[in-house]
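FORM 12-B: Structure-to-Sequence Request
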């Protein structure tokens, strides 16, 4: 990364706030803003967090669900232990990892969250396509893991295929919205697709 990027990051109020509060990443603020807008997570919920590293969303979700709730976090990168979080090590698109996920869940999830992103190439059309592929994998797993009435959120990049993906999510949820949290970096194509009230 260039010096200009480093300087811009240090000026970023969300980055500074995350450092000051000892948070695992500035992405925590995105989940908090999604939560404030849509009421995604409730006390006592079971949460499945896909592509969880470095663990910011998992930690925030564990605080939101409280002691009666549970979070199952999945990633190829190992996470430091967190209270209220069960970790599954592996690629959530892999069949063996998915088997371990359902064993850890034990019951249908109330919410599936996914802030995962592929390694970016710098080529916009390719990065959009790869991010949508990952979001589709998260949606496919959510279809199997969520209870009726459950909620879903995944990160995507706006571009070719974005509207098609929104239509695919609408096949399974009564209300579907695209949302750009205020904590999103300026100039980013990143957005979050939120699905509420999964149909049976």
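FORM 12-B RESPONSE
SEQUENCE OUT:
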């Amino acid at each position: 990364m260039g010096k200009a990027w480093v300087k811009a990051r240090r000026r970023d109020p969300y980055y500074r706030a995350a450092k000051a509060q000892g948070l695992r990443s500035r992405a925590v603020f995105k989940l908090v803003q999604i939560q404030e807008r849509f009421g995604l997570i409730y006390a006592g919920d079971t949460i499945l967090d896909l592509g969880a590293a470095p663990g910011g969303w998992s930690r925030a979700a564990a605080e939101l669900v409280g002691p009666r709730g549970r979070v199952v976090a999945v990633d190829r990168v190992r996470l430091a232990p967190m209270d209220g979080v069960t970790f599954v090590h592996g690629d959530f698109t892999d069949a063996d990892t998915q088997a371990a996920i359902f064993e850890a869940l034990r019951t249908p999830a109330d919410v599936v969250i996914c802030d995962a992103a592929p390694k970016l190439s710098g080529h916009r059309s390719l990065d959009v396509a790869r991010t949508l592929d990952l979001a589709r994998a998260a949606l496919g797993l959510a279809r199997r893991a969520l209870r009726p009435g459950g909620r879903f959120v995944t990160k995507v990049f706006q571009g070719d295929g974005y509207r098609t993906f929104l239509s695919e999510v609408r096949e399974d949820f009564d209300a579907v919205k695209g949302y750009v949290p205020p904590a999103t970096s300026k100039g980013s194509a990143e957005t979050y697709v939120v699905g509420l009230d999964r149909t049976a």
